[in-house]
Amino acid sequence: MKNYSTEKLRNVCLLGHGGSGKTTLAEAMLFNTGVLDRFGKVPDGTTTTDYDPEEIKRKFTINTAMAPCEWKENKINVIDTPGFFDFVGEVKQAIRVAESAIILLPAKGGVAVGTEKSWAFAKDHGLSRIFYISKMDEENANYFEVFEQLLNNFGSGVVAFQIPIIENEKFTGVVDIINKKAKKFDKDKLIDIEIPSNLTNKVEELWEGLKEALAETDEDLMEKYFSGEEFTAEEIKKGLRTGISEGTIIPVFCGSAINNEGVKLLMDSVVDYLPSPENIKSFKARKVGSEDEIELKPAENEPLSALVFKTIADPFVGKISLFRVYSGTIKTDTLVYNSTTEKTEKVSQLFILRGKKQTTTDKLTAGDIGGVAKMQSANTNDTLCDPSRPVMLDKIIFPEPAITLAIEPKSKGDEDKIGAGLQRMQDEDPTFKVALNTETRQTLISGIGEQHLDVIVSKMKAKFGIGVNLIDPKVPFRETIRKKVKTEGKHKKQSGGHGQFGHVWIEFEPGDTEDLSFEEKIFGGSVPRQYFPAVEKGLRESILKGVLAGYPVVNLKATLVDGSYHPVDSSEMAFKIAASLAYKKGMAEASPALLEPIMHVEVYVPDSYMGDIIGDLNKRRGRILGMNPQDGGIQQIVAEAPQSEMFKYATDLRSMTQGRGYFKEWFERYEEVPPLTSQKIIEDAKKNLTDDDDNE
Hints:
Elements: E1 9-16, H1 22-32, H2 53-58, E2 65-71, E3 74-80, H3 88-96, E4 100-106, H4 113-124, E5 128-134, H5 143-154, E6 158-160, E7 162-167, E8 170-176, E9 181-186, E10 189-193, H6 200-215, H7 219-227, H8 233-246, E11 250-254, H9 263-273, E12 283-287, E13 293-296, E14 305-314, E15 318-327, E16 329-331, E17 335-338, E18 343-346, E19 350-354, E20 357-360, E21 363-365, E22 369-373, E23 383-385, E24 391-392, E25 403-409, H10 415-428, E26 433-437, E27 442-447, H11 450-464, E28 468-471, E29 478-481, E30 485-493, E31 500-510, E32 517-520, H12 532-542, E33 556-564, H13 572-589, E34 592-606, H14 610-619, E35 623-629, E36 634-642, H15 649-657, E37 662-672, H16 675-695
Parallel strand pairs: 1-3, 1-4, 4-5, 5-11, 6-11, 32-33
Antiparallel strand pairs: 2-3, 7-8, 8-9, 9-10, 12-13, 12-24, 14-15, 14-23, 15-22, 16-21, 17-18, 17-23, 19-20, 19-22, 25-27, 25-28, 26-27, 29-34, 30-31, 31-33, 34-36, 34-37, 35-36
Helix pairs in contact: 6-7, 10-11, 12-13
């Protein structure tokens, strides 16, 4: 593939609900440019962009993948993205490096949650948008019904550029509204035909709507429109490019990617109407070491700035870093400065990635997308730049994980391998997090949803040969006391030679701080001062296990008030043991209680789901604290709920809202567990303790 100047590039991401045909469209585009000898199919696992073994096995896209192709003296960097919500991080990567988005939706089914989300993502990032009504070959396909849905959902800026020709209930061609020409599909060719008589009125109606949208892009066109003058071909093209670039015109195309019908016309429109990186006149970056912003231009002769937007952990090649060049030119064997890690590194070999196939290149210019292998210091979201002008580009904002599960090896001895494998997975996927809970001694993995974590587990097996199980995390309960007691602890032992003697009276009461609060109020030297630290140490070791279920004790105040000692037999160890005896007795008498972690929860859902969500949170022992209206008909529900009830909430919320709802949560405080729930937790803890003893 030859090198292209910035104005000859188009970076286009394919967005849409799962199953809308994104991967098949990417395959058709590649096939049309001659880079493929045969047309791959998703069910057969033979497509270019779904090359990962997990994608082939599951028959849907998991990873964002590149599909660059050359069309009419331009290079189109097609970026295929997943449609399932668990892999939204991949979508965020694609959107960050594109200027435009083609949003696909099937002619049977129309606007779905994924369509709404794709629109919102693309709009928020200022991308030019095209709608592509796909799968026109399917039975009961209805273009006009879907077009009405688009108008109702996304406004009057949605304009038909094409309408389908249907003969004997079959999709046979399209009418081009702009040029008022009809084209019929004949295998790989397009044949000009007369516009069918049953569509002439519709074409005129849609052309009027298109002219109105065009007039709004320019004052001169507005004057012409109101005076009844016709627009010239040049004015039409310029107006459409302006409207699409500014997001005031959203074209609608149609086709059948599986039959490669209408795809070439879509590709023509990508080149004709969608913006190149050069059309984005400038963008902001931050000077390294300050908060000052500078403007960079997407020009080849500018100093280099590039963003690493994706990392691939390849078990054979190693780490592959995909990046987009924003300014300047990057060449093989040049030194680049990583302003994130503050390291300078040599670019060994540049390549263009198409699916998993690498094609080497000597340089990449502003606006282009490529990759480099084995850059040790480069990670996702790092900026690579000219050492003489260190800058920091805006990072991709990834969603926070919504579900956390514990992971354990299926085979003993795999614990060490798990850590290395998980680290590689974390490098590849910024929405995946790993943490070790030292208290419960569990490795916790967090992701966007259950399917996300399931894929991670499958990849661990396939890439590193490690089989693991996913289980619910252990809840880090706590224990405390509710009343004040005074108890005695005496340790006395005589066995030839020196004996052991330690004797204390300690008052236990609820404290103000989570940590143990220890005081002494000894009068008359009943316990010598040198033994005070031993008493405190004995208590600190004891509070690691409560008397109810063996959980750590919090909010405890202990005051040493009395005791006695033996001038020969007393020792630090004896007083430490005496303190632990007093603790066990005192905790049992002081009305012990079990505490559970309470999470602050903020749920964001459309108005229509409010009742279901509030009812569900109540079932989870949640408390609703308030409701706040947000933009776009969204409600924020603020609540508190026990952590133990929230482990699978991401899955349940998605099910209840068809994927429209999302939530955030964080630890708030500990709170006493209700009696019935507490009883069950204590019984389970004692049973687990017995099982552990039996296994030893």
